[in-house]
Specification:
The complex is a heterodimer of chains A (249) and B (321). By secondary structure, chain A is of the alpha/beta class. Chain A is 26% helix and 29% strand. The longest helix of chain A has 15 residues. By secondary structure, chain B is of the alpha/beta class. Chain B folds into 2 domains: 174 residues, Rossmann fold, CATH 3.40.50; 117 residues, Rossmann fold. In chain B, helix 5 packs parallel to helix 9. Classes of the chains: A alpha/beta (249), B alpha/beta (321). Strand 13 of chain A pairs parallel with strand 16 of chain B.
Chain lengths: 249, 321
């Protein structure tokens, strides 16, 4: 069984976001780039499955759509333990065009399980995984918080309102993954970092793809009013304010 | 031409989220001078369906098939897309919840329709069609232009007021022509809590962080939540430690919520935590560290030990409410 993990290259989640002039893009100076947190958890789970000889998972590949500048993030995924990588050399304007590129890669290389994070921490679109599955006309399961392989058959845990369910779909499929899929992201070992340098990254030139949306500009959230402090000895005053001023209780 | 709103039903019932969605779709439809069709898959009660007409749905459609009893993304997307095409829908509205995130991207490809995901306002402009959405996990908002003929919007929860606009629409129930629809999802087990207010539905959320010091200290926090008819939540270290269940983890990689009131006890307010709560209408912070970043996000604050403040708040609520 072959697993593909799609990875997005995002600013470290503690970054203070600033915008470049005109507010049409972010100011990338000083930004630390990382693997999107949900993608990193997907990769961790894929590697755990590969470590388990009984799972039947033979290889874990990562795929990324982006320019050469994202190579360090791809190398990081290889250092964590992915066997090989694909990079589509394309600066994608939107989720639709990313998914179109990844769908082409999957068509060419063939995978049983495609894992995508439920969103990227930059555009928060929650779109690429579902789009890939529709481009390929294969099943998708969203809100996946668990993936096991029992007697060669993938069994997914899907979060639902107020609970979860066990779900089976035939391969190939796309799993859109959220928290819970792995406990902690796996960290690269020194050996992993050394071997990552020689692992293959296959470069694809982009196929012609349309985009349907564009980001016209960004803005910062409106600043909140200054915090009103309440005497810790008299918390009843807080309840009073929540009732009569904020009118929320 | 129409605006189609997909209103998921939960065992035949709708909830506040559904009414927000229909209200939003009606307001978008008004801007475009179109009618709203509300669509739900899976048998819903007639009385429940009728309620959607209170918020501006001109038609209320219930599609039913015994082959579509569990969520199969591929099949549901096809059914909704076919219906949208039949009705000439130009805008399709989903919730930005688990179901919306599962279906909207598939519809996007089927209909070649751009998505504005997690929108929290009415479109800013109709030409070009521009929507307002959260980006960088709450650290920014983006103006996104959708260029395609058909547009898909997923509405952030608790971001739009319910607006009464009764139409008196009579629900229509129809079967689904299931020929040629692949249904591949098998659900082998379902575990579900009942009788508990869901974190994502709650108007009031009471949340605890590491400042609560031990899992044994949670009783007054749970009591406060229950007195306020709210849900309980926690920060990531707390769920990682196993002090509270993972479902309660609120933050960037956990649940993203937008209640009317979020009360944070002993939570310092790391960027990743704020990413999950910053859309709350009111934030109250109780923390012993006066420099904790949570106070920058809060409208009301108490600098003090959460463990000491909590019992006093419980008493105050018992007296007042």
């Amino acid at each position: 069984m072959k697993i593909l993990v799609c990875i997005s290259n995002v600013p470290d989640t503690t970054t203070k976001i600033k915008f470049a002039e005109g507010n049409t893009s972010i100011d990338t100076s000083g930004i630390q780039w990382v693997i999107n947190p949900w993608d990193e958890l997907s990769l961790t789970r894929a590697l755990e499955l590969k470590d388990d000889a009984l799972s039947g998972v033979k290889s874990v590949t990562v795929a990324h759509v982006g320019p050469a500048g994202s190579e360090p993030t791809i190398r990081k995924a290889l250092a964590i333990g992915a066997d090989d990588a694909v990079r589509v050399n394309y600066i994608a304007p939107d989720a639709y065009s990313v998914a179109a590129q990844l769908a082409e890669v999957i068509k060419k290389e063939g995978f049983d399980i495609v894992m995508c994070g439920i969103e990227s921490s930059d555009f928060n679109g929650s779109a690429v995984g579902g789009m890939i599955s529709e481009f390929l006309a294969i099943p998708s399961v969203s809100s996946v918080s668990g993936l096991k392989i029992e007697d060669g058959i993938p069994v997914l845990t899907r979060e639902i309102d107020g609970g979860r369910e066990s779900v089976k779909v035939p391969v190939p499929f796309v799993a859109v993954v959220q928290k819970g899929i792995a406990k902690e992201p796996r960290i690269a070992s020194m050996r992993g970092i050394m071997t990552a340098r020689t692992k293959p990254v296959r470069l694809y030139e982009p196929v012609a793809a349309e985009s349907l949306t564009e980001t016209a500009r960004f803005e910062k959230p409106a600043p909140r009013a200054a915090c009103k402090y309440i005497d810790p000895e008299n918390p009843a005053q807080l309840i009073e304010l929540l009732q009569n001023e904020a009118k929320v209780i | 031409m129409s605006v189609l709103v997909y209103t998921e039903n939960w065992d035949g019932k709708f909830k506040k989220l559904s009414y927000e969605l229909v209200s939003y779709a009606s307001s978008v439809a008004e801007m475009l001078n179109m009618k709203v069709i509300a669509l739900t898959i899976g048998k819903a009660d007639d009385d429940e369906l009728r309620i959607l007409g209170n918020y501006g749905a001109a038609r209320i459609i219930n599609l039913v098939s015994d082959r579509l009893t569990v969520l199969d993304n591929q099949a549901y997307a096809k059914v909704i897309a076919d219906y949208a095409q039949k009705e000439g829908s130009k805008v399709i509205v989903f919730s930005n919840n688990m179901t919306g995130k599962a279906l909207a991207p598939r519809l996007s490809v089927r209909l070649k329709a751009g998505i504005g995901s997690g929108v929290s306002k009415l479109p800013l402009n109709l030409d070009p069609f521009t929507v307002y959405k959260r980006a960088y996990s709450g650290n920014a908002f983006a103006h996104v232009i959708i260029r395609s003929d058909i547009k898909i919007l997923t509405l952030a929860q608790n971001s739009f007021e319910i607006i009464e606009k009764p139409t008196g629409a009579v629900p229509e129930t129809a079967g689904i022509d299931v020929d040629g629809i692949p249904v591949n999802t098998t659900v082998t087990e379902t575990r579900k809590q009942t009788g508990k207010i869901l974190l994502t539905d709650a108007d009031i959320v009471v949340s605890g962080g590491r400042g609560m010091k031990s899992p044994d200290n949670w009783a007054p926090l749970v009591e406060l939540a229950s007195l306020l008819n709210g849900a309980t939540a926690c920060s990531r270290p707390v769920s990682d430690e196993g002090w509270r269940p993972h479902e309660e983890h609120t933050g960037q990689t956990g649940k993203i919520i937008a209640p009317n009131l979020y009360m944070a006890f002993g939570i310092s307010g790391a960027t990743q935590h704020l990413a999950g709560i910053s859309s709350s209408r009111f934030i109250v912070a109780i923390n012993s560290d006066k420099d904790a970043p949570i106070f920058k996000a809060a409208q009301y604050g108490i600098i003090g030990d959460a463990m000491k403040v909590l019992p006093k708040l419980v008493d105050a609520v018992k007296k007042k409410i």
